[in-house]
Specification:
The protein is an alpha/beta fold. The chain has 4 helices and 6 strands. The protein folds into 2 domains: 35 residues, no CATH class; 124 residues, Collagenase (Catalytic Domain) (3-Layer(aba) Sandwich). The longest helix is centred in the N-terminal third of the chain and has 16 residues. The two termini are 19 Å apart.
Length: 173
């Protein structure tokens, strides 16, 4: 439902501002949103989400965060815990969102790196120190980055860069 609503909004925006939407509905809007810095890229196919062996992130906590994004049209193929060498190198792997324990800069609760080719997201690597895996909204926020979203400095938005100002609400600015 949300995906249909989002596409309708994109079409209305194109018409209202006289944008050429090019091939497919909403291309002009996508260009504008990527230029504004909010949508940095999009997955062509649904990524596989992997909780790396050293992470203490609980499956149930990850499922809640994935369900949050699923409600807004951001889907994943499936998730699982890694017990292989997939996470050992701490590198971005095409088609995967890897979640691992690790160090982040002082003053930062977690960090997400993305690989983007053009406007296509091809992989993401999230580092959430184990002491932060239970912080409310943090996993949702970092998955937002992994799904291609940047920060949005609006109180109540899940992508607010200040966790205390973020609520579990999402809208396209």
């Amino acid at each position: 439902m949300w995906l249909v609503f989002k596409r309708v909004l994109k079409v209305m925006f194109c018409i209202a501002f006289g944008l050429v939407c090019g091939y497919g509905i909403g291309t002009g809007v996508h260009y504008w949103l990527t230029q504004s810095g909010f949508i940095l890229g999009e997955w062509k196919g649904a990524p596989v989400v992997v909780i790396c062996e050293k992470s203490t992130l609980e499956d149930g906590r990850l499922q809640i965060a994935l369900d949050f994004w699923e409600n807004y049209g951001y889907s994943h193929a499936f998730f699982h815990r890694d017990i292989s060498k997939l996470c050992k190198k701490k590198e971005i792997i095409n088609g995967f969102i890897l979640i691992n324990d690790g160090n982040v800069p002082t003053g930062i609760l977690a960090q997400t790196r993305r690989a983007i080719v053009g406007t296509e997201l091809v992989g993401a690597y999230i580092v959430i120190p184990n002491e932060n895996t239970r912080l409310s909204k943090l996993v949702e926020h970092e998955l937002g980055h992994a799904f291609g979203l940047g920060h949005y400095d609006e109180k109540g938005h899940i992508m607010n860069p200040v966790l205390e100002r973020a609520l579990p609400k999402f809208w396209i600015p």
